[in-house]
Design brief:
The protein is an all-alpha fold. Helices cover 71% and strands 0% of the residues. It has one domain.
């Protein structure tokens, strides 16, 4: 699995989990959802993603985006 697919899977998972936590526990979890969305948005323009950097250091194969 390439870095791009891992980043998308983790981001999607974080968003779904934070939405569930916001629904069942506290609406403050929506701030985490906003953080993940903002990080995805900025990485689309800059190409910088903290998770991609970590995965590169762990030796995962990189695709064309990162």
């Amino acid at each position: 699995m390439s870095i791009e697919r891992i980043v998308l899977a983790v981001a999607g998972g974080f968003i779904l989990v934070s939405l569930a936590l916001a629904y069942y526990l506290s609406p403050y979890w929506l701030w985490f959802t906003a953080f993940v969305g903002a990080n995805l948005f900025q990485s689309a323009f800059t190409g910088f993603c903290p998770l991609a950097v970590i995965l590169k250091k762990l030796g995962k194969e990189s695709g064309p985006a990162f």
